[in-house]
Write a structure and sequence with these properties.
single chain, alpha+beta, five-stranded mixed β-sheet, rod-shaped
């Protein structure tokens, strides 16, 4: 014979157990949700920090670019100021050159008028010079035709000491050789002794301007040729052109050296006996 024992559980206890299980599940669910939110917030914080670092880096780059732009702007401003000063200086130089050119032209006209009035010079046209280049051949000396005249160039840097009116030691032998060849080839032609300078600043206070310097060079050469007995005084005349007739650009040192010169110019006209 079997006996069965019935276990009686009060309804209240059952209800309490069921309620506890439900609360545990809710708490677990809430905890999981909070962990997810926390993880999401952490990711957002990391992203925000990364953006902040990137923005700071961009800001530094922009600051560097701004400083460079300001520096370039300052350099350009300085360059503009330099160009403006150069333009002003150039305008002043052009005005001065125009004055010197007008003065040189006036002196040439005065000299020509004086030669025509002088009884010691007879102007006799001679077309022989316009037909062929003269047989003047001196090593190291430039000779060229210029219309109906012949120009023999003597570099001023080979004739004079820098900045003063004093011949270099080898100047007189050079003048003697050149003058003697011209006198031999054209014993009766009028010869102009013409001085030319470059347009650079005067290297000495000896002269007030380029025209005065060119005249003094030409006068010194004329005096040397006459004192050496190569030409009579009435066969030579002096002209100063200043810097108004360059043969090369004054923008280079080689051009300025070439422009500083004294030319012995053989004219078609003959002197009187």
């Amino acid at each position: 014979m079997r006996f069965c024992v019935a276990l009686f559980i009060p309804p209240a206890l059952v209800a309490a157990g069921l309620s506890g299980c439900a609360q545990n599940q809710f708490a677990a669910s809430q905890n999981a949700a909070m962990q997810q939110q926390q993880a999401a917030l952490s990711r957002q914080l990391e992203e925000a920090q990364a953006r902040a670092v990137a923005l700071d880096r961009d800001n530094q780059q922009l600051q560097t670019m701004l400083a460079q732009a300001n520096q370039r702007a300052k350099i350009l401003e300085n360059q503009v100021s330099v160009v403006q000063r150069q333009l002003s200086d150039t305008a002043s130089q052009v005005a001065q050159l125009q004055k010197e050119k007008e003065e040189a032209e006036r002196q040439v006209k005065t000299l020509n008028a004086s030669l025509q009035r002088s009884g010691s010079v007879s102007i006799q046209p001679n077309s022989s010079l316009s037909q062929a280049l003269p047989a003047v051949n001196i090593p190291g000396v430039q000779v060229r035709r210029d219309g109906d005249v012949i120009r023999v160039e003597l570099p001023a840097d080979q004739l004079f000491e820098p900045g003063i009116l004093q011949f270099r030691p080898d100047a007189i032998p050079l003048l003697t050789a050149v003058g003697s060849e011209i006198a031999r080839t054209y014993p009766n032609q009028m010869v102009g002794v013409e001085g030319f300078t470059d347009s650079g600043p005067l290297r000495s206070s000896t002269w007030r301007n380029h025209l005065q310097m060119s005249v003094s060079w030409a006068a010194a050469v004329q005096d040397a040729l006459v004192s050496q007995g190569i030409f009579p005084a009435n066969q030579l005349f002096v002209v100063g052109h200043g810097d108004s007739h360059p043969v090369m650009s004054n923008a280079t040192e080689a051009g300025r050296i070439r422009n500083r010169r004294v030319e012995l110019v053989i004219y078609p006209e003959k002197r009187s006996s």
